[in-house]
């Protein structure tokens, strides 16, 4: 084999390795954790996103709380992430704090609420479903959030390329 053929074979091997690494769980886990962080911050600011595919929806302000529920919240011990009048799905903080990576399969990431709520038989996933039915969906990404996550992935993927010495 000539030097050029060896160089080409070596380069092709590096490309295959980068592609495998980019789809590997340990490469996608930081992306999943970034998605969780984006969802938590946006929701705590009082915005939701309807269920969408690939970040095709716009965020919206969560429904205002009813006067009766505000009074209940004023008498309760709330999470330090909220106030009695703020509609941000944070009463105790358990739901948003329970967000975790559920599965990473074949280059795809699934995140969502996990676990059972303290002192209740209701799971966090059940509560998230109930809230979505009542007009407060929050587990999707908006258009700008999906783009933010794509940029984060590209930066991570770029680091993989640098590590394999495919890019200067």
Low-pLDDT parts are none
User: Secondary-structure element sequence?
Assistant: HHEEHHEEHH
Number of strands: 4
Number of DSSP helical runs: 6
- The largest beta-sheet arranges its strands as 1-2
Gross morphology is elongated
Structural class: mainly alpha
Percent range of helical residues: 40-55%
Largest β-sheet summary:
2 strands, antiparallel
Instruction: Report the span from N to C terminus.
Output: 26 Å
How many domains? The number is: 1
Describe the fold and architecture:
With 168 residues, the protein is mainly alpha-helical. The chain has one domain. The chain contains 6 helices and 4 strands. The strands form 2 sheets. A two-stranded antiparallel ribbon has the order 1-2. Helix 2 runs antiparallel to helix 6. The protein starts with a helix and ends in a 5-residue tail after the last helix.
What's this entry about, in short?
The protein has helices at 3-23, 25-44, 67-75, 94-97, 124-133, 143-163, and strands at 47-48, 60-61, 99-105, 108-113.
């Amino acid at each position: 084999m000539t030097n050029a053929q060896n160089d080409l074979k070596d380069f092709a091997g590096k490309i295959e390795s980068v592609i495998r690494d980019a789809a590997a769980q340990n490469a996608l886990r930081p992306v999943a954790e970034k998605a969780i962080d984006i969802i938590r911050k946006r929701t705590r600011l009082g915005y939701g996103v309807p269920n969408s595919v690939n970040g095709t929806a716009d965020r919206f302000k969560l429904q205002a709380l009813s006067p009766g529920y505000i009074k209940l919240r004023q008498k309760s011990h709330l999470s330090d992430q909220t106030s009695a009048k703020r509609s941000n799905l944070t009463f105790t903080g358990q739901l948003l704090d329970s967000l975790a990576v559920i599965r990473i399969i074949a280059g795809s990431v699934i995140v969502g609420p996990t676990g059972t709520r303290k002192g209740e038989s209701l799971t966090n996933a059940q509560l998230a479903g109930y809230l979505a039915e009542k007009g407060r969906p929050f587990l999707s990404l908006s258009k700008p959030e999906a783009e933010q996550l794509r940029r984060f992935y590209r930066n991570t993927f770029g680091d993989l390329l640098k590590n394999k010495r495919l890019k200067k």
